[in-house]
User: Fold this.
Amino acid sequence: MFKKNLVYLLSIFVTSFLIGCSTPEKEKTKEEVYKSWEGLYTFSRYNKEKDTIYWSRYTFIIDSLNPALINNKNKEYVGKIIKIKENEISLNFTINKKQETYTIVKNDSTFFSKGSIVTNDSLEIVKNKYQKLEDYTKLKLPLHQLSKIYKTDYYIDGNATVNSKNGLVLRNKPSLQSEKLMTIPYKTSLMVVANTDNFEYLTLSKKNRVVGRWIHVYFKDKQGNYNIGYVFDYFVTYNYGIYNLPIDRSSEDPKRKHIDIYTAKQFFENLGDMRTLNIKAKTLDLYSYLKNRESLEYDYDEMDFDIDFLDSKQNYGYFENSVAKIELFLQGYYDLEITSEAKSIIKTPPLHFLGCHGILFNNVTFKTKYLQTDYQKELGESFAFNVGNRTETLFFSNIEFNNQQFKISYLNTMPLQFEYCKFKNYTKNCIVSTNNSSRTDYDFPININDCYFWNNKLETFFELKQEKMTINNSFIGYNSFKNIFLNSNENGDTTLFKTESTYFINNSDK
Assistant:
């Protein structure tokens, strides 16, 4: 009995000694607590296999300076942290002139929020550019909704890239007057989580005034640190690729050829379907290459567009005569992407598109030798691009057009679309239609998204006939014009044109 009591007393002593010698858990500092909350808190549709967000109803961005609530791509509310603990944080926002407080309680990588959250189902956070489009629309992937916290592990693939060789300044607010946080290096990948309605009209040099908007971005630097703030998007290239086009690829092999192009000869030799041509040369002179070849002498009005003008091996053609100079035709191409990481210059004669289905020009600079016949001189026309018969889904992204007119000469059944493009110094029209068809059973949409128009002095921006046109989330400022849209058809239907979330600033009548 004595031995049992002795053993019991010794065990109590040892236990008390060990407890007394244990080190109490160190309490986190205020700065450490703030740091632990940095991240994206989003209620989203999420792909479990790819670890990728597709779109989100709302997103909180939390840092120690400017927490933000984003409920669609263009609506952002900047707030304050009013209370913070290790697993709970309260944020105060002014929404519709009212003070709203939201509390977030986190548990590992998930969270739930308290408060009536302002939501919007259309906020896109990420599009997986390698996933075929029909997988989005048919929802074949195992998607579910959840509230998840993303910090550096969320950083999978950015949706924009810094294109300024001098780097890009990150600021703590969407303004040039705000605090400079750091300079982001050239070619750094950024995640754009929201646009703002803050635009700037800047003078880079005497002959170069530019327009851009402030966007909210975050990224991971080379040291692995998580950074967040605002940048001016004139110096950003938005990631846009051939998989963004609404093309039916259900019966096609998703593997495509990626070919580096250094010369005009290589360009023409490698034109083809299901291809991406990556322009590596600083300048690609297609005009001089065609001019130096043996010319094809055909009368413009009597050409057989199916046979006569075509190159013997490829579906492109060109001709030269005393009236029209050189023109270049691209015919029948499917799923063709022409892109450049370095915004290469492409010198080209006027481009005609005939029977093409899915062509994307991305991040290139066009230098166009304009076509001007005597007849077109009378009309004041000098078009750079002619969208011809049976052409569907012709896309342009990240391109700055300098008084380069688009002409629509035939009915088209799918979009002519512009994404993240810039239009400046126009004196006639940006887009004009010469389509005289009386058919009304076709849809011929022209979609302009996230684009900028400035320094234009012209009568009418868009002179169309039966084409339906939408300008969305764009900026039209510092221009002189009489009409933004003119329906030159007999019925004068103004319902064919609409703008959504588009800003008109400092424009004047011509």
